[in-house]
Every structure is written in C-alpha cells, then in structure tokens.
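Propose amino acids for all 169 sites.
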C-alpha cells in the first residue's frame, strides 16, 4: 500500500516536472523569438531605419551596409552600392534620379536595373526584414544577383543632369 502511494507520488512529481519543463521551453522560445535581430556590421544583418523613413522617391544610403534603401511601388529594396562591373562604389545622383558609377559610366535606375554601361547585370540586392524593434535590417551576408541587362521593369524620368564624371577612375 505505502509502496503504491510512493510510486503514485513519484509519478505525479515526474508529470509536474515534465509540464514545468515544457512550459519553460515554450517561454524560452517565445522570449528568443521576440528578441531583436543581432546587430552586426557589414557582412551580417545591419540595423537601419524605420520603413516609413524610406521615401517613395530617391534613395537612402546606409553606409554601414554599403547599400541604398529604395522604395519601388511601395516595396522596400536594399541595393548594394558595389558596381557589378569592377566594384566601384555607385552613388545615387539626385539630379538624374539614377545610380551612376563614376568609374566607367554604368548607369542604373532606382530599381538597380542597368540602363547603360559595361556592367554585366543590374545592382545586386540584399534581403531585408523588419526586426521586432520595427526597424529595417539589411542582411549583407546574402547577395541576390542583379537582373540581366535589358531587364527594365520601371520607367522613371531623369529630370536633370548626370553627376558622374565620364571616364573618371
Ligand atoms: S566599376 Fe562601375 S562601370 Fe566599371
């Protein structure tokens, strides 16, 4: 009888312990998921700005990610600022509304599509995600190849002069 009772007590305690452990694992997982993404420098996930801070026009340079954030038809895109020709840094030119490589003259539209120049493809992209803190994170550890030359999905006017110095290095 007392042997029965102690076995019952033992099994009851094991059940309770199991339930406590399952609860603790669930709480840990939830806590872990709610943590902001780890902030690292270039080569990792780079914490940037709120999505609402990226305007419908122009581009926002994120130096730490060596990238530009643009909004195309409402969608946020992170474009690498490394020219796909020979790797020069490609700035956004406000007057022409284009990305213009100062090295050999490649020009890209705001979606990073190649308009002219020797580059083999459009500007590469990085995945982005919105962290638990509501900010945009650019994953610079991953690169998505830019689109092939001739792929133009958007037409935006070029209101003014080019910024690039042709033939410069
Ligand atoms: S490095 Fe940009 S066009 Fe050559």
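Proposal:
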């Amino acid at each position: 009888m007392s042997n029965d009772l102690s076995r019952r007590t033992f099994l009851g305690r094991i059940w309770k312990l199991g339930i406590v452990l399952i609860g603790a694992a669930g709480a840990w997982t939830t806590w872990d998921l709610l943590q902001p993404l780890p902030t690292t420098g270039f080569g990792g996930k780079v914490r940037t700005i709120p999505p609402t801070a990226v305007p419908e026009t122009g581009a926002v340079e994120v130096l730490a990610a060596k990238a530009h954030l643009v909004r195309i038809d409402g969608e946020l895109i992170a474009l690498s600022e490394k020219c796909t020709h020979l790797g020069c840094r490609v700035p956004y030119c406000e007057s022409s509304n284009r990305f213009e490589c100062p090295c050999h003259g490649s020009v890209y539209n705001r979606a990073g599509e190649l308009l002219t120049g020797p580059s083999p493809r459009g500007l590469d992209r990085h995945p982005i995600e919105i962290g638990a803190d509501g900010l945009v994170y650019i994953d610079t550890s991953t690169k998505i190849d830019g689109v092939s030359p001739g792929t133009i999905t958007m037409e935006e006017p070029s209101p003014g002069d080019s910024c690039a110095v042709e033939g410069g290095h």
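The helical segments are 2-34. The mean pLDDT is 88.
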